[in-house]
Amino acid sequence: MNKASDIQLYHDSFVSLHVQLHNQLRELIVSGRWQGGTRIPSENQLTSHLNISRSTLRLALQRAELEGLVERIPGKGTYVAHIAQKESQRRLIAFMTCGFDSETHSMLLNGAESVAKANGHRIIFSNAQSRQEETDILRRFREDNVVGLLLWPHANASRAQRDNTIPYEEIGVPMVLMDRQIHGLECDCVTSDNYGGGVAMMRHFLELGHQRIVFLSHQATELLTFKERYRAYRDVLTESGLPVSEAWLIGQPGKEIGASLALRASLDPNSLELQQIRDLMLNANPRPTAIFALNDYLAVLAMQAMRTLNLPVPDAVSIGGFDDIDLAAHLQVPLTTVAQDSFAIGKLAAQRLIDRLEGYSGPAHCEIIPTELRIRSSTGVVVTA
Q1: Is the whole model's pTM more than 0.85, yes or no?
Q2: Alpha-carbon torsion (298, 251, 102, 368), positive or negative
Q3: Which conformational region is residue 99 in: left (phi greater than 0), alpha (psi within -120 to 50 degrees), or beta?
Q4: Which residues, 6 or more positions from 123, have their beta carbon under 8 angstroms from its beta carbon?
Q5: Bridge partners, 337 (sequence order)
Q6: How many helices (H) and strands (E) does the chain have?
């Protein structure tokens, strides 16, 4: 029996609720968990369970109907369409992220879908909130008969532990990683030029006269993004004969700070993360004149922390980020950042997966998408006393 509880939406996600709902309906139907000819839960059941409006629900159902996934029968309700599920499953690609709370993930999915649809494939989307949930979903993919997997893996998969690779190896289908790698697993990967983008940001700081620069990060330091961006920070300073500091690490040990957590913490003056940044700044001797944040969300936290310390940005401290989220250009002080093309990453990852599905058997390869420095108001020349 099809149940409203088969669906879970995340109200704090950057992804629209109707898009989340449409993705989950498609997964349930194409995978065969909701069988053709069966009735889906009523509008009252869905709106009540999911805490959404009828307009949100109807928008998702309209998209599903246009795709031929459901059909509405006047006076009876909405039913799963009698699609050729076995044929659909032979063309079924899984797209999975862990913590779908950033617009980056939405752009990855949009890019992947553009290629998958053009090549006659369907994508089902899954989101995991933890490493254990990720493992459970990965194992379920075998029952869904997916032919390939696009994966943005959990941060823990980057750690040097053999056990990390086991759930991924058990999938038994071609897989392409997006943005980050899995330690010990030979697999195609598409990511941004994290190192090149980091070098561009650091040289920008130097051109403005900054010599005391710190690197701000969460504590998931095994991630490719951290390693490459921090390597750029370290190399540019070393080449310039300037002191290199250990990264300023905030948050819980070993934990990644996602978009939702970062934004919530930035609005709470008593949050652990803001207090940690304030303490690091107050205890620094000499005080840095610039902060290179691992990503834009951490840069937002840094800007808020400087505001509470009455250190104006950029007059007292310049701040730069990485990603170029939509919010970056619309902050009170627009953020200088490194733009990465998440749509292009998703698009190329899907193409590489389809290449594998069509018979390519060459060695695993990691492809790099260029980045671009976007200079805004949060960085400025060093102001001497």
Answers
A1: no
A2: positive
A3: left
A4: 26, 93, 94, 95, 109, 112, 113, 116, 150
A5: 321, 374
A6: 13, 14
